[in-house]
Design brief:
With about 140 residues, this protein is an alpha+beta fold. It has one domain: Nucleoside Triphosphate Pyrophosphohydrolase. Helices cover about 15% and strands about 40% of the residues. Strands 1, 2, 3, 4, 5, 6 and 7 form a seven-stranded mixed sheet that branches. The longest helix has 13 residues.
Length: about 140
């Protein structure tokens, strides 16, 4: 095995992705202006220093969509290597239920639109972490 010298610049980042359930559907957004542009992804983002996974999920969902969530539970994780972009993430998935709020695009520079989809009929192309999660056979 070849060992790679790690620096703070090439360590994996931790992402949190939130599977929000509402009326037998989940929320996905179409990404833009970032890695994975044009793909469908769950709401989420970077885990901040000293932040709990639950707080990250709540914060990111509200910042991106204006929605509030409840009953957050740990799910699976994926090891996501974006070869072209030279980025590496460990994505922690949580499930949550919609609580309240009106869904809107609060970060139009990052997301084109939000839509609710049945879990068994998710649109393509999918953001790499979501695709890797589905390859694991994860089901809500």
């Amino acid at each position: 095995m070849v060992m790679t010298k790690f620096t703070s610049k090439n360590r994996p980042f931790v992402g949190v992705a939130v599977i929000i359930k509402k009326n037998e559907k989940v929320l996905l957004g179409k990404r833009k202006n970032a890695h994975g542009a044009g793909t469908w992804a769950l709401p989420g983002g970077h885990l901040e220093f000293n932040e709990t996974i639950e707080n990250c999920a709540e914060r990111e969902v509200y910042e991106e969509t204006g929605l509030y969530i409840k009953n957050i539970r740990y799910g699976a994780y994926t090891n996501d290597i974006f070869t072209e972009e030279q980025k590496h993430y460990i994505t922690l998935f949580v499930t949550a239920e919609y609580s309240h709020g009106d869904c809107k695009v609060k970060e139009p520079h990052k997301c084109e639109q939000w839509e609710w989809f049945p879990w068994n009929d998710l649109p393509k192309p999918r953001f790499l972490p979501l695709e890797n999660l589905l390859k694991q056979g994860f089901n809500i």
